[in-house]
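Question: what's this shape?

___
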Amino acid sequence: MGYNVCGITDTRERAIKKAELSQSDLILVDINLKGGLNGIQTEQQIRFIKNIPVVYITAYSDENTYRQAIITNKFGYIIKPFDEFELFYKI
């Protein structure tokens, strides 16, 4: 689909550092990250540092996760596994 991936990481600290250093147009962040804070809290920190859209990805589709994602992020979330079509229309 023409997207360039600037990096993949599994911790909050690395995700924030990559966001600071990249010139990305979009960030996908899993709601469940290693390292203390979850993806929702990580997304809030990234938005504080850079004004960049963040879309959550998660394997969890329960009501609590949905509410947290919608309240904190206008770009929403995608449930794993997802395909290119779903990613294309979410972005």
About this structure: The chain is about 40% helix and 15% strand.
